[in-house]
């Protein structure tokens, strides 16, 4: 493949010109000044997509009625059920288990392992394959205060400072307290964490950290964690059954108000499957594929926020759903890589962000939302962005600095996946910079939980990106892999305890009927069906020819 | 998505590809059936462009999950090629088929009760690696450019650490296993090798062990609980007072002035 076209190659000259001096400054520990807390606030209000008034509307029904949320989120919250609740016979179910886990990513799998260890039989129902999740895409690392100069105390401060003090305190305490235990758990399971020859864990800074506590497994930390814990779940397959390509579409409650199962839909055979369970854990992940405000996204194909919708109909509210994380560095060139996440590790290793003139315009390791606003500002108000041949805006991320700072071959060794993803298109990122722009990355808000992953509905738990509050309005890098494992494990343990005690009553879907009545009263009788399940990227002209759905 | 889209600064556009003005249409042959697609798209986006909605064969769309491995040939060419549909740019007259799943052998083991050396364990669980005929098809097939035959050879030599390191980039797409004349399931054998290597052949992190013990003893619960009750102003003060560990400090060597909360 061809690499950068001539017009971009010419612009790269400006980056190369300032590079030797910037590298010298970095070696001396000099850096571009970070914004003050006051500046951060002004920048956010003016440039962050969350704070713009457009693209939002008020929710008309359910536990969050009256809240102002992004249109795309409101659309799914106000959707109607995919099942006709009145006609479902719940006296006979198809599967019975102790714990039902909905979602087969990192949080769901961690929950399943813990519930199994507590002696329960577990069913994992997942929309795509076991492991298909945003977990596998988390590249940069996982935080945990494991080194001597660090402690959960400082981790806590970094988390709430990064989240602009909007986090749920008890959830942050759980997150940071358990972090070293999670890293230990991963080591014990046989995860290839990056280590020094004597066994000491390698750690780095991430945006907004005061201590170096970012652990990694190459630049595919999430993928390594997922393949290890999935393998472990397979080792325990006598008690952990996995049903793939069978997303849940509705929760089942009992007449005492407990959550008592779910209805699955087999995407391939088109059957509905009724599962009765003593506890249910919702671990369906985030909603990047809702494409809020039309942004590109870095998320997995299945990230459509299904869990939020089901929980909502069962009366569980969500928090902070007006807050979305834009990852500051998504690729904008070449076109095939658009939306592709460029891990923060690139900046952790010393690469700087530069405008069209090869000048720095921000501290490269600000918290993500701040970094995002700095880039948007540089490209819009200041007008010093770089334009790609088809008209996308971006700024340079100067990866060749990394080898100059840490020695020849560092890029290939520390960023093997990124290297491959660009060299395929003729761009050697150890020699040429990347073009990036913020991209939709993470759902900050979600289902409201307490510190054991429990919710306001007994027997109903949730963990991971599907939930909100842990990270407040902004998540630091390396805390999502931690979040899914901390709360996945806690939810698994709590769900197992509940399963041992509970005496379930008669199964019901009356909450779904009630919700649909409320929809009707609010003039939303003809709402689309939800949860969304899969995005549809067919072009408009093809869709116009898909007159109707036909069963053959 | 319209092929007539004007060139203008685009900041947000969802996941649909923006086509350059006058994009050239090229034939792509999906499982024997020809479709016209605009050039520059990845195979995955091209398949979606034709109106297909994925259930199988699509995952992370970022080259790391192994859902979208595919085989292709060009008309008239004997060579069989492979790639990931989300990472490979469609070319004219590619004849493609995806391989969303391939049956692979895996065996279970108890990671807490391993009563043999890693190389003995690999030999017990995956004896078929010794049937490798050294044809190199696996290596040529791998869309991640892994030296698959090389790590199989390392397993045969009993060098499990080397096998683990060489196979690290594996995304378990199964393309190599689908082509192996010795019927080896390389990805699952490699996954076991990596876990054994990390568990048994890599020194434990001593600082992690002692920190985990401190956490279990409840050492940090008090100070964390204090933080949860603190008002925002006091928290902000503490936040601003944090000392930042220097970027190039060696792990465990730098220590902050204030050691009272460690």
Structural overview:
The complex is a heterodimer of chains A (552) and B (262). In chain A, α4 packs parallel to α14. In chain A, the strands form 5 sheets. In chain A, strands 3, 4, 7, 8, 9, 10, 18 and 20 form an 8-stranded mixed beta sheet that branches. Chain A is built from 16 helices and 20 strands. Chain A folds into 2 domains: 162 residues, Succinate dehydrogenase/fumarate reductase flavoprotein, catalytic domain (Flavocytochrome C3, Chain A, domain 1, Alpha-Beta Complex); 304 residues, FAD/NAD(P)-binding domain. By secondary structure, chain A is α/β, with parallel strands linked by helices. Chain B has 262 residues and is of the alpha+beta class. Among the domains of chain B are: 74 residues, Ubiquitin-like (UB roll) (Roll); 83 residues, Alpha-helical ferredoxin (Fumarate Reductase Iron-sulfur Protein, Chain B, domain 2, Orthogonal Bundle), CATH 1.10.1060. Chain B has 10 helices and 5 strands, in the order ββαβββααααααααα. Chain B has a 5-stranded mixed beta sheet, covered by helices on one side. In chain B, β1 and β2 form a beta hairpin. The N and C termini of chain B lie far apart (55 Å). The N terminus of chain B is likely disordered. The interface between A and B is large, with 115 and 104 residues.
């Amino acid at each position: 493949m061809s690499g950068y076209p001539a017009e971009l190659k010419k612009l790269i000259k400006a980056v190369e010109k300032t590079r030797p001096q910037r590298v010298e400054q970095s070696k001396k520990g000099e850096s571009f000044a970070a914004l003050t807390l006051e500046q951060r606030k002004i920048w956010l209000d003016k440039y962050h997509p969350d704070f713009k008034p457009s693209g939002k509307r008020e929710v008309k029904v359910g536990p969050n009625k009256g809240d102002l949320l992004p249109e795309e989120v409101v659309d799914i919250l106000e959707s109607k059920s995919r099942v006709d609740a009145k006609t479902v016979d719940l006296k006979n179910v198809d599967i019975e288990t102790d714990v039902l886990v909905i979602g087969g990513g990192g949080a769901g799998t961690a929950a399943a392992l813990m519930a199994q260890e507590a002696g329960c039989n577990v069913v994992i129902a997942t929309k795509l394959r076991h492991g298909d999740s945003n977990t596998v895409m988390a590249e940069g690392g996982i935080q945990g205060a494991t080194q001597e100069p660090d402690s959960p105390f400082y981790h806590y401060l970094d988390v709430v400072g990064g989240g602009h003090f909007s986090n749920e305190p008890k959830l942050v305490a759980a997150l940071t307290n358990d972090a070293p235990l999670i890293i230990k758990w991963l080591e014990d399971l046989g995860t290839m964490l990056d280590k020094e020859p004597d066994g000491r864990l390698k750690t780095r800074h991430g945006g907004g950290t005061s201590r170096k506590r970012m652990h990694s497994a190459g630049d595919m930390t999430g993928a390594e964690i997922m393949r290890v814990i999935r393998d472990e779940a397979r080792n325990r397959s006598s008690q952990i059954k996995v049903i793939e390509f069978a997303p849940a579409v509705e929760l089942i409650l009992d007449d005492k108000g407990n959550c008592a199962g779910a209805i699955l839909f087999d995407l391939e055979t088109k059957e509905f499957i009724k599962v009765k369970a003593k506890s249910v854990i919702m671990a369906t992940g985030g909603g990047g594929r809702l494409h809020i405000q039309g942004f590109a996204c870095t998320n997995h194909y299945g990230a459509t926020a299904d869990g939020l919708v089901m929980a909502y109909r069962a009366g569980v509210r969500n928090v902070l759903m007006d807050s979305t994380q834009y990852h500051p560095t998504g690729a904008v060139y070449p076109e095939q890589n658009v939306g592709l996440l460029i891990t923060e590790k690139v900046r952790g290793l010393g690469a700087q962000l530069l405008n069209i003139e090869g000048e720095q315009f921000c501290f490269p390791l600000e918290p993500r939302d701040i970094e995002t606003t700095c880039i948007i500002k540089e490209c819009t108000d200041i007008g010093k962005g770089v334009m790609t041949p088809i008209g996308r805006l971006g700024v340079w991320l100067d990866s060749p600095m990394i080898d100059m700072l840490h020695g020849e071959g560092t890029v290939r060794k520390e960023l093997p996946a990124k290297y491959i993803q660009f060299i395929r298109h003729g761009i050697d990122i150890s020699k040429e910079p990347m073009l990036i722009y913020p991209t939709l990355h993470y759902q900050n808000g979600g289902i409201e939980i307490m510190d054991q992953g429990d919710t306001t509905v007994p027997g109903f738990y949730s963990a991971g990106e599907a939930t909100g509050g842990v990270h407040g309005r902004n998540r630091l890098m390396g805390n999502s892999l931690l979040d899914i494992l901390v709360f996945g494990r806690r939810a698994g343990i709590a769900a197992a305890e509940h399963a041992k005690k509970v005496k379930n009553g008669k199964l019901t879907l009356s909450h779904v009927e009630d919700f649909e009545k409320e929809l009707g009263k609010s003039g939303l009788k003809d709402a689309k069906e939800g949860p969304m399940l899969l995005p549809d990227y067919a072009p408009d002209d093809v869709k116009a020819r898909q007159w109707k759905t036909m069963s053959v | 998505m319209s092929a007539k889209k004007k060139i203008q600064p685009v900041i947000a556009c969802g996941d649909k590809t923006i086509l350059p003005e006058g994009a050239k249409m090229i034939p792509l042959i999906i499982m024997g059936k020809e479709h016209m697609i605009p050039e520059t798209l990845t195979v995955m986006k091209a398949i979606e462009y034709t109106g297909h909605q994925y259930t199988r064969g699509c995952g992370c769309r970022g080259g790391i999950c192994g859902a979208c491995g595919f085989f292709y040939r060009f008309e008239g060419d004997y060579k069989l090629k492979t790639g990931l549909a989300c990472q490979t740019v469609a070319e004219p007259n590619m004849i493609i088929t995806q391989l969303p799943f391939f049956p692979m052998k895996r065996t279970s083991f108890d990671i807490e009760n391993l009563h043999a050396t890693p190389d003995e364990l690999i030999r017990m669980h995956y004896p078929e690696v010794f049937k490798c005929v050294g044809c190199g098809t696996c290596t040529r097939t791998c869309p991640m450019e892994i030296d698959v035959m090389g790590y199989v050879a390392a397993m045969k030599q009993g060098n499990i650490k080397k096998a683990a390191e060489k196979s690290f980039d594996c995304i378990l797409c199964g393309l190599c296993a689908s082509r192996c004349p010795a019927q080896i399931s390389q990805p699952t054998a490699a996954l076991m090798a990596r876990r054994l290597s990390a568990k048994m052949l890599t020194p434990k992190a001593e600082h992690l062990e002692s920190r985990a013990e401190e956490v279990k003893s409840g050492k940090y619960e008090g100070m964390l609980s204090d933080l949860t009750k603190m008002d925002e102003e006091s928290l902000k003060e503490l936040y601003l007072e944090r000392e930042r560990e220097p970027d190039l400090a060696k792990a465990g060597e730098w220590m902050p002035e204030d050691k009272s909360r460690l």
